[in-house]
Fold this sequence. Notes:
The protein is of the alpha/beta class. The chain is 41% helix and 18% strand. It has 12 helices and 11 strands. It has helices at residues 10-22, 62-70, 104-111, 117-126, 130-140, 144-160, 173-180, 186-191, 196-212, 232-248, 285-290, 312-323; strands at 2-6, 28-30, 50-54, 74-79, 92-96, 218-219, 223-228, 253-259, 270-276, 295-297, 301-308. A 6-stranded mixed beta sheet has the order 6-7-8-9-11-10, with helices on both faces. The protein has a 5-stranded parallel beta sheet with strand order 2-1-3-4-5, with helices on both faces. Strand 3, helix 2 and strand 4 form a beta-alpha-beta unit. Helix 9 packs across helix 10. The N and C termini lie far apart (52 Å). The relative contact order is 0.10. The site of manganese (II) ion has 6 residues, from loops.
Amino acid sequence: MHYDVFNGDADGIIALLQLRLAEPKQSTLVTGVKRDINLVAKVDTTEADTLTVLDISMAKNIDGLNRALDAGAKVFYADHHQAGDIPQHENLDANIDLDANTCTALIIDKLLEGKFHAWAIAAAYGDNLIAKADELADKAGYSQEQKEQLKELGTLINYNGYGAKVEDLHFSPDELFKALLQYPSPFDVIADSNSPYYQLQKAYQQDMELALAVKPTHQSALLGMFELPNTAASRRISGVYGNLLANQNPDSAHAVLTENVPCPENQEITYTVSLRAPLSNKQGAGGICGSFPTGGGRAAAAGVNALPKEQVEAFIEAVESYYR
Ligand SMILES: [Mn+2]
């Protein structure tokens, strides 16, 4: 049995898309919402199995990975998140690159020598590597209009991955992957008026209008913070909205807080936090979020799963003292 284990965001989906366009394979798809990164442990592997694992931190999946390797499974792993100590194992093919200006789809693009380069560029846009994606698109000779198309498609696929649970999403990530696999080029998706692109475009506009109507709860030169209500629309738009804010104001950090469903036992209010480091200084977000009990992430983009309401002030202070 082959398992394709991948993050449910644009980078994870498009990393796998490139591999399966290049090498079609019957596989069991293991994925989830973007935040659901503990995926390898969900696979019950045996010696005969092979796994492809994409765009989820090896450090966070190390127990599942070791179990799969111990069972004798062969694992191909590509990622750009914190890896921890990479196991030295003959059955592990690890392709890890922690460069802040790369993403998993670009790692795969290199391995495939640019075979599905337009897809890889769309993924880079989707992972908010705008400058890198622009550079690659220019090098590939795409027009301004084509660049905008790749950027919008990547952004929309990325947007689809955000939610607390798969039911929040417009497409479950495995369904979206299967739908997109019909298109060898992202421009074919845009040319097909029945493709997910148009459904996501409409949904995105509706969710974004709701987010844009919310005023900041904290605004300084160092940090803009916004609080969105406890709705599926907020959970879908929060991450992409954070990217939009970061691009609008590249010298400031941004935090988008989405109110969680209150804790059933004590009705405690907590927030899901998306933190973006200033684009002009892509550092610190992972460390800041990691200093709160349910937080973590990368230097440029990180989050906290359940920040108690009474810790919001401490969070603001942690962000501002880091970037001051
Ligand atoms: Mn990624």
